[in-house]
Amino acid sequence: MAINLDHIYEEAMSLPDETKAVLADRIVEYLVTHINPDFENFQLDIVKLRRDEIRQKKVEPVYGSDALAIKKTCGENCRGGHQEQGQPDRGGKRSDRESEQGQGRHRHP
Q1: In angstroms, rounded to a whole number, what is the distance separating the alpha carbons of residues 52 and 107?
Q2: CA distances from 6 to 11, 25, 39, 74, 92 (A)
Q3: Dihedral-angle region of residue 38 (phi above 0 means left; psi in -120 to 50 means alpha; beta otherwise)
Q4: Which one of 52, 75, 83, 88 has the fewest beta carbons within 10 angstroms of its own beta carbon?
């Protein structure tokens, strides 16, 4: 019998919040102990690439709280690389790259 993932999700969402948290913890615990080493290495390569991009000043880091606020504002269609247009970065000024390019930015309602 095929398991319908949407049905399982809906059932899980009907659980009390505390039970959802326990279920999530159990799933994460399982995943942590069953990670495919190739996938883990692939992810580590991406992390190292991003770290190098930040160190080389090719990109600027985004605080998690800022990213979540933007995600809430622009919804499901939001993709990375957004900063509210005209808003300074955490250092209080727009980067040279932002000023020159101005690309990948859009206004949020």
Answers
A1: 29
A2: 9, 20, 25, 25, 44
A3: alpha
A4: 75
